[in-house]
Amino acid sequence: MSTHTLQKLTEFNDGIVTGPMSPMLFAQEIAKHFELGLLAVYRVNFDDRELYQEPDEPGFLTGYDTLLVVMTQMVVFGIDRGVGADLVAMALKDGDIHINPLENSAYVKELEVQQIEALMFEAHGIYKAEVEHLAAWRVEQ
Fold first, then answer.
1. In this model, does residue 14 exceed pLDDT 80?
2. Is 119 a residue whose pLDDT tops 60?
3. Strands (E), the chain
């Protein structure tokens, strides 16, 4: 079983989400695709460095970002490949989890379905906390 940590990359100030450029561009594209508001972006740091990476130069792996994009109606787990992306799974606001099988991927390793489900269950908890944060900010306005 792979373990991971989550690193929040964004801040929410005065109704605006800000964060590092590359993850933010990825997250903004995802939010635009689903036509939803962006609430936060988290990096998933896996202990197993081969997860969702591809062989690069001999002996090296790519440095793809594994991200949770938290939006107003769902959270998406995706791989930012720099040019292009793979959407692995999403958790809807009601807790339903949908997994997108990555066919013909060149990743060295991928999470098993049960591991993706566990990550998305955790992500749904983050989604609820971010929505509450947004609601509290709106009350203050």
1. yes
2. yes
3. 4-8, 11-13, 16-18, 38-46, 65-71, 74-80, 85-92, 97-99
What pLDDT was estimated at residue 1? 57
φ/ψ region of 6 (left if φ > 0, alpha if ψ in -120 to 50, else beta) reads: beta
This prediction has a pTM of 0.93
Distance CA(59)–CA(4), nearest Å, equals 23
pLDDT of amino acid 125: 92
Two tokens, residue 57: 């130069």
Length of the chain: 141
Q: Which 3 state secondary structure label does DSSP give 22?
A: helix
Question: What are the b/e assignments for 113-136, b being 16+ CB within 10 Å?
Answer: eebbebbbebbbebbeebbeebee
Token pair for 79: 């791989």
d(CA 34, CA 119): 21
End-to-end CA distance of the chain: 44
Smallest CA-to-CA distance from 1 within 55, 61, 48 is with 48
* Residue 55 confidence (pLDDT) above 60: yes
